[in-house]
Amino acid sequence: MNVQTFTPLLLRLLVANVVAVIVWIAASPLAQAHPHAWIDLRSTVKQDEQGRVSALVMDWTFGLYYSAFILEDILKQGTPSPENLAKLLNETASENLKNLREYDYFTVVKADDEKQTLGDVAEFKTEIRDQRLWMRFEIPLPTPIDPKAHKITYAVFDPTYYIEILYAEKGPLVTFENTNTCQAEIIAPTPPTEVIGLAASLDQTQNGGDTLGTYFAETVALTCP
């Protein structure tokens, strides 16, 4: 479902349904523990004509909580037309990406365990899909990396673990553009028991530090024979 299919009534029903879920979540003891927001992830590896990894394309599907927060904020300005809704969603995505730049868009790319510099996002799309906010954006690598010559891994995570970012339950989860020879392995995290306990003890006003999210991050390892 995209923004063009919304009528004012459907938009308000969407927000009402999502808010009901938020109330249910807030009443749960789990609401007192990190994380407090969720993103389902898919990613695409782009390669140039030489087969070097040149960019990563991220597909984020936000959880009901954040989706409702954004839509409810939009509705405070009145019920928008489909065109204005698309415009407002794009403005929100642009602002989010601007803020995420400071944190490399929650993305860490490594070649032979050395962290790589990431470029600025210039291309993105956003819409409502199945009652949830969806965003796709492309992160360029200023210096493309040869996956045959280097061990390439990448992970997407919020350093504070306030937001949990995990690959979606159903595939395709990691795809490749411009190649059919590469493979990707998603390596599950194995956080220590004490770190799990720390995350469970934090409420919305507390911060577990800028390294907590690393323990819960899924890592993608590329293999290109």
TrEMBL record:
Domain of life (superkingdom): Bacteria
Cited InterPro entries: DUF1007
Protein name, UniProt field: ABC transporter substrate-binding protein
Organism of derivation: Magnetovibrio blakemorei
